[in-house]
Write a structure and sequence with these properties.
Keywords: Nucleus, Repeat, Ribosome biogenesis, rRNA processing, WD repeat. Belongs to the WD repeat BOP1/ERB1 family. Required for maturation of ribosomal RNAs and formation of the large ribosomal subunit. It is built from twelve helices and 39 strands. It is elongated and about 160 Å long. The chain folds into five domains: about 190 residues, no CATH class; about 80 residues, no CATH class; about 55 residues, no CATH class; about 180 residues, Methylamine Dehydrogenase, Chain H, CATH 2.130.10; about 160 residues, Methylamine Dehydrogenase, Chain H (7 Propeller), CATH 2.130.10. The strands form twelve sheets. It has a five-stranded antiparallel β-sheet with strand order 16-17-18-20-19. It has a four-stranded antiparallel β-sheet with strand order 11-39-38-37, with no helix packed on it. The protein has about 800 residues and is of the alpha+beta class. Strand 1 and strand 2 form a beta hairpin.
Length: about 800
Amino acid sequence: MNKGNKQTITNKPKVATPPVATNKKTEKPVVPVKNNIPTKPVLNNKNNTAVNKKENEKPVLGKKRKDVEEEEEEEDEEELSFGNINEDGFSDEDEEGDDEEEEGDDDEEEEEDEEEVATFEEDTGINRALLENEDSLVEYNSDDGEEESINSGNISSSAATSGAEEDGKRWSSDPNQFYDSEDSSEDETIVNRIGNIPIEWYDDFDHIGYDVDGNKIMRSESTKDSIDRFLDQQDPNFWRTVYDKVNDKKVVLSDEDMQLLKNIQNRNFIPGFNPYEDWYDPGPNPDSIHPLHNAPVPKRSFLPFGTDEEREIRRLTHAIRMGWIKISHKKKEKKNNFDLWGDGTNSEEKQKGIKRIPAPKQRLPGNVESFNPPEEYLLTDDEVKAWHLMDPRERPHNFIPQKYKSLRQLPIYNKLIKERFERCLDLYLCPRKLKTREFIKDETKFLPKLPKPQDLRPFPSHEELQFLGHSARVRSISISPNGQWLASGSDDCTIKIWEISSTRCVYSLKVENEIQSVAWNPNPLYNILAASYSNKIIIITPPIYGPEQNQETEKIITKPNTESTSEEQQNKSVNWYNVTDSTLKERGVRIEIHHPFTVKNLTWHYKGDYFSSTSPEEGTRSVKIHHLSKRATQTPFRRSKTPNQVTRFHPSKPIFFVADQNIIRVYDLMKQELIKKLITGCRYISSIDIHPGGDNVIMGGYDKRVSWFDLDLSTRPYKVLNYHKMAVRKVIYHPTLPIFASCSDDLSIHVFHGMVYDDLLQNALIVPLKILKTHQSVNDLGVLDIAFHPKQPWIFSSGADSTIRLYT
């Protein structure tokens, strides 16, 4: 650049210039820059030096320079070539250049630079510290030896652009060299660095915030009183002066700012802006998935007031109060989507008529259904045998778990079609009823209202006496009609008669086999005891009253058998014999009745002339009715599908009850026809008994359940009681009191209050009273038989522990 060509800046007052720093190597003057602003290195193409200008002097405020016009332009522009710049800012290629060619021009160039700087300072009088964002001066040398200096400081964008077009590619190590000072001028004007927060938070302090170095910014303008503010109105620029609360200073708006405000008020666009310019669609941007900025969340988003949402809420609230917006309180009907995988309990389907009830879902398979189950699920040989012997309804699974090495070896399930068909039948035929459940917090409301057991006395509550004398299990006991004597039969092949009041054994009879059953004649006029063992039934008139028997007993026993019936000829398998053995006759044994099979059960008619026997091993002809006075036997049932187990006579009517393994049949002996068939639901019936009123039946089974039947109500159980833990052996009603009891192999005797009302509209009342448990278990057998006293609320029990106990 020639000496005569000088850059001029107009309308800039001259300011005293501080001392100029020089580089020791080149002794070139360095222009001081603004404090706390990084500088760019100065590259010298001749000396291969880079000068880092750092000054810690306070900045001198001044106006920006206007556009600098270059008076002289280069005729030839060539591309510049820069070498690799090392960490110190020097070019490696320049250091390796030819030193001989450069030494001759060093002195002349240094003199020209000094004259240039002195002339620029003299003409303009501007301190280089006023140049905002002036980082460095870059010097370079073109191929033809001409050198130019580029001022990358605070110059206008037009000058920078023209310089770029003239000088070609320019490069330095400063990353901000291609940005104008105006890009950061807006941020630099903000002195207070407290951020976008309410300035009212500093009202109680003597400062308004902090600068970039963390120093307090003290108040200046805000401390003026009203007089000072009035005097400030004398300023001719007062009408265009605004107060900056954040920085606590006054700002004078320029003509450009005023014109911009007028455009905004008049809703005009700024000059040079075309609002109808054609839209340019750059197409999809592959980098659009990346964020454009990493700015933190502003503080205004956390402020509780002044938000757009708050203003919108105020507007809507005012409109609702004024009635401009009317809110309908009708709830919108939600569309019910069908949940394919749901159980249907929460679905509210509104349909006309019958509501849809979801079908119950099947249980999900577990480890036992796997083709390769764990070892603990596999059955041993003994468990497989036990599985086959179990009832199909008691088996834990309807198949035997098996293990296969792979899924390919798994055969098809042979019961698949059958189970799927049964499942379809259940879903199609099984009725499902929808019930509305009420939520009741009080749990006591679910319990039935029952009277207290103390109000239902008398009933047996404790053990009073024991009858000891048998050496084996006592299978059967019976009480005489007058309540004075107790008969018992045991596996020790003896029949004993006990005096109840003293527990003294007054009679004992030894027979060939185990005693199955003993039964006193219920007619108090007769002193007759029947007992069964093996395939025989013996009729005994025990000599408990002395050698003389009453006339009624002798009359029914000694009546000659002169009449014969067709029934007798048909029952040649049953034979009646008079006892001729003097020893047995002295012991009171009068008649023997021989059967083809073992007799398990004996039952007397309430008049005392008939009794029935049951031989389950005989099959369809297992039930026989014997006429004692005529010494005749009948077989009324010959077509029974299952062997009969127990029989009972009605206490007052000619009705006969026969129970097989699952069903109780009721027959009318006068009409000789079937009246009812009671469906018990029991797997194996063990005992039945008839209420003294004759309209209720109680049944016990080996499947641990006790069922109460009301013959006037239904053929199905009125109540099913599942309280025993093992097989039920005997159930019995008290002949005079509203009490019934049951005994089981779990060593317990349960006593219940069972009141039957004459009013047909009122059901029977069943109340548990007492649990008696004093027997001992022998070979998993407990209480085998029980009997009530005919007059007292006493109960007798016999067990496998060879004892007979009295509870009162």
